[in-house]
């Protein structure tokens, strides 16, 4: 039996939504974060989600590894692409961009300014700058989407899913007007929200 460890509302949501897209026989276990007694510490030494344990003994961490791994289990889903294809590299390129520039580069300083300065008086400035950096990072994506329905190829892939999970975090920043001119992103986001797998995962997490 394989198990995906998640915490509602975190970046583990991407792997959770993907599991629902693929309808794979993998269990889902909810864990609390940042509490010393959380079971996640026995699973992942970093204490982070998502964490996927395959067949009870093989740990895979990082969205950038888990999303491609899961999508490869059902290649006919079209959510990833064939080994050796340029599309596959393009999807991986977007996943790398989202992990580094968007998640670690913008959301992390916004949500965890304490990691960047122990001086709480500068945290509002760190947060404000994180929003500006995020705007620039997402404006790049929005320009790429001009005249395109999806990030890569002519279909919804794990790159779109991962992107839209981050876009769904924007209301948490308390400054949605800053992102109001990113119309291509808003269009993609509406398509993501309408997918049954997205709804199932979000409803499941909201009920916990
Ligand atoms: N680069 C990792 C980031 C994982 C990560 O930071 N997860 C957060 C939730 S969004 C977490 O578990 N934080 C708990 C902690 O850092 O203690 C990935 O994409 O999987």
Automatic annotation (TrEMBL):
Pfam family, one: GST_N_2
Matching InterPro entries: Glutathione-S-Trfase_C-like, Glutathione-S-Trfase_C_sf, Glutathione_S-Trfase, Glutathione_S-Trfase_N, GST_C, Thioredoxin-like_sf
Residue ranges annotated for the GST N-terminal domain, each copy included: 1-78
Residue intervals of the GST C-terminal domain: 84-208
Gene Ontology MF, one: transferase activity
Keyword terms of this UniProt record: Transferase
Gene3D superfamilies: 1.20.1050.10, Glutaredoxin
Source superkingdom: Bacteria
UniProt keyword Transferase present: yes
Name listed for the protein in its UniProt record: Glutathione S-transferase
Organism in which the protein naturally occurs: Pseudomonas cavernae
